[in-house]
Amino acid sequence: MTQLKGGPVVRTRPQIDRDAAQPVYAQLAAILRQQISDGAFRPGDQLPSEAMLVRAYGVSPMTVRRAIQRLVDEGVVSAIQGRGTFVNTVQIGAAAFELGNLQKMFSDGAGASVKLIEARFVSADEETARRLQISVGDHAIYIRRLISLRDEPAFYHRGHLIYDPTRPIVESELEVTVLKGVFSGTGSSLVKRAELSMEAVLLNEDEAALLQAPPPSAGMRLEHVFFDFDDRPISWGWFVCRSDCLRLHTQVGLE
Amino acid sequence: MTQLKGGPVVRTRPQIDRDAAQPVYAQLAAILRQQISDGAFRPGDQLPSEAMLVRAYGVSPMTVRRAIQRLVDEGVVSAIQGRGTFVNTVQIGAAAFELGNLQKMFSDGAGASVKLIEARFVSADEETARRLQISVGDHAIYIRRLISLRDEPAFYHRGHLIYDPTRPIVESELEVTVLKGVFSGTGSSLVKRAELSMEAVLLNEDEAALLQAPPPSAGMRLEHVFFDFDDRPISWGWFVCRSDCLRLHTQVGLE
DNA sequence: AAGTGGTCTAGACCACTAT
DNA sequence: TAGTGGTCTAGACCACTTT
Question: Which residues make beta-bridge pairs with B85?
Fold first, then answer.
């Protein structure tokens, strides 16, 4: 609110600052987002048209579109051709639990250490053969590791890795593939894609002992399969941790 | 590959189809994505500059930028000002488990039914008061429900809801808030945001009995707090399900 | 200095929706 | 028919990186 001398009370509108470090489209997106958050536009309400925003803020149509598009990408509004742009209700289904949070535990100087429990050649059993798309009885590498945080056991990892001298997977790459690729951010350039799944499990005796959990205990299991650029599996494995090691948080809606 | 009559072998480049239903920027993004997927550009490689793409495909700079921006948003490439655009390695940390998959179980004619087990006024205990930002001893509504899919018990839900005659939360809205808002897609216009968390738990006796799981069993617990446009909590509760009811899948990387 | 991506303009034309 | 969002142009200027 601004009180002009002797004049009427004028409701000031947030303005674009052309000298700000923040781009104009981001400023406009922030203004609209804030207005929605403040309740000036409620779920279901129609936003001012692009043409109106162009006039109101003195920016070009493309800049307005970028601002709106950002809100669309955020799921805050929906733009419908021929009708207008409307504020969304909170969509819980849009919530996503990001693995990136978990990653921080390892990247920051969080005192992560890895102890190799076992690594040996095995003959692929039926499931391993299926997951790695090899034949039953083919060689594979089986590894078991314990990953600790600040000397507390946190993750128990088991993995099966392709062993094929004709394929360009060297020992150091394996390390990357199955550990760094998961937890320390930058993956191998041999990996094209990965499939992940997560579920709650009851820790078995070995797992409970290694993770220092009193049985019966619940845990989380994160399974992974990595594929190379020929779409062939490179590795298949899973991490198991105590439930108190992996609580995922997220937020949906504004602010 | 195209064999011109008597001429040399010409490697055809994917071209833009101006008459296609798909926008030009989407076509260009798809072309580049496919080339990366095919290994024509490997992780770490630099993409052709925007100016080169403008010449190569005969489109305007803005259109090239939109195509690249889409790949950036997808996490496939990173654009660095002054240096160029580079193909990313697979970033596992970018993986996100979406709740939307779960939502489908309820929205499709999946035979979801809800049975109210209990609903009564309670005096808020310490934790409830903290979560709902009310005073200990204040009235709240406590509800318990069992949600079944195809006559199989799937989710056990407990929730505490604000009871305040001065606040515009009617009975029907409560239903929306705690159930439809979570599982059937469209939320209430009273809800501004929600906080969610997920963890593995050991089912207690009651939970195991209701969910028809033999104890000891592991389960997943999904906790939620909804906030109104005044940033005050509306409800706090949690769903518990058997582990086999909630397996989350995701994929990271190309294709 | 040359090349890169980042922003922004001031329109144009189109497809779609409402009246 | 008027209004809406969706696409696209052909530049401009800027900030940044590399040579």
Answer: B79
What is the per-residue pLDDT across A144-153, written as a single tens digit (0 to 9) for each?
Answer: 989 888 889 9
Q: What is the pLDDT of residues A192-207, one digit of tens each?
A: 999 999 999 999 999 9
Cβ-defined contact of A103 to B93 (cutoff 8 Å): yes
Give the global pTM.
0.89
Task: Search chain A and give the residue with CA nearest B100.
Answer: A93
Question: How far A2 CA lies from chain B's nearest CA (Å)?
Answer: 24
Residues 80-99 of A with CB under 7 A from strand D: 80-85
- Looking across all nucleic acid strands, the nucleotide with the smallest C1' to CA distance from residue A20 is C7
Q: Distance, angstroms, CA B58 to C1' C3?
A: 20
- Output the CA–CA distances (angstroms, integers) from residue B207 to A161, B155, B248, in the order listed: 39, 9, 21
CB within 8 Å: B254 and A193: yes
- In this predicted model, what pLDDT tens digit does every residue of B88-115 receive, in sequence order? 998 888 899 998 877 666 665 667 788 8
Would you state the torsion angle of the CA atoms of residues A142, A148, A149, A154, taken in this order, to the nearest 10 degrees? 80
Other CB atoms within 10 A of residue A27 CB: 20
Backbone angles phi, psi at B37, to 5 degrees: -60, -35
